[in-house]
Amino acid sequence: MIIEGEIIDITNDGRGVVKKDGKVTFVENALPGDIVQIEITKEKKNFNLGRVKKFLSYSKNRRFKNGENPLGEAYPLFALDYDFGFNLKQNIVKNNFKKFLNMEINIVPHKNEDYRVNKLRLHKAEKKVGLFENKTNKIYVPNMETLLGEGASEIYKDITENISGGKFVTIRRADNGDFLSTDGTYTGKLFTDYKDRNRSPKIHPVMEIAGKKYEMEIDGFFQNNRYGAEKALEIIGNKRTGKILDLYSGVGLISLFVADKASEVLGVELWEPSVINARENAKLNNITNAKFIAMDTGDLAKEKLPLADTVIVDPPRSGLVPELIERIKEMAPKEIVYMSCDHTTQIRDIKMLLPEYEIKDNAVHVIDMFPGTMHVETIALIQKM
């Protein structure tokens, strides 16, 4: 079946929304304002799924001619005027808090038009290296200079010429150089240090954020956008004087920042290499009141949590396990700082904290940590009633 319509909205996962004859159709790779001819690929009782058969006209909010997007399908909103695209993301957050929590929140937006990332993971197939097209194994090459900054074209040329075998390539751009990790074999000389199937690196990437230095693994977790990381720390603040428990603490980005005035900080992280990094980062920054342990928060939830005045959580997209939320409520900290890369699981978890807790000023900070994508970082400062 073929239908025509205008894309009037966009979903969390980047699909365009068309309403036709009282029924919604979700359309891949179409943006608000596009008028499209749609081939229906699946009919459901309450909605349809479809793909664009033909663009009849492009949205006036697109900024490249003929529907082009230099960053490709992994960055759908890069094709749109920045403010228009960021407003779409803010509205999704606001509407979901209303829908799932029945709460009219005040969005505090933090714009970010710096698309550069400090870590980029690329897929590899023979000599082709790049990102996957949406829901396929087809590889395309985005504009590397936009994502990695000056010198990215030279880096890309080097990895395509000097890596054999393997299925992935991770590039890390740090303050002390450029680093590479791959499951193939690297024979080039461009990088400060590298990890491949035959070699372990001798030097760690190091980045300075908000006046503190952090070492990390080449392919380990660290906030991927410098502006976003600094903005998150600014929102969280470092004036607390009591005991702080930081769950999912990674290499200590938040723990060491809040340690400035805190009496003590305990960071809990599952991945052992990040815990080792965090301990080294405490030494690197001459911080003696922050300790780090390697532990699954699911296991931690089976125990009585150490007392803290403030609990900070920055979980993966899956959010917090219910048992951990119950332990936090039993501990009854005065404040919970919830930072999230998936606001839908954040909403689910906040719902479990009510009514004993409330969101301070009904305000949720929305950082465009991943500009051009559908993702944002949200921070809620939650206080005990």
From TrEMBL:
Sites where the protein binds S-adenosyl-L-methionine: Q223, Y248, E269, D314
Matching Pfam families: TRAM (PF01938), tRNA_U5-meth_tr (PF05958)
Domain TRAM positions: 1-54
Keywords assigned by UniProt, alphabetized: Methyltransferase, S-adenosyl-L-methionine, Transferase
Positions of the catalytic residues: C341, C341 (nucleophile)
GO MF entries: rRNA (uridine-C5-)-methyltransferase activity
GO BP of this protein: rRNA base methylation
SUPFAM superfamilies assigned: Nucleic acid-binding proteins, S-adenosyl-L-methionine-dependent methyltransferases
Family assignment from sequence similarity: Belongs to the class I-like SAM-binding methyltransferase superfamily. RNA M5U methyltransferase family.
Protein name, as recorded: 23S rRNA (Uracil1939-C5)-methyltransferase
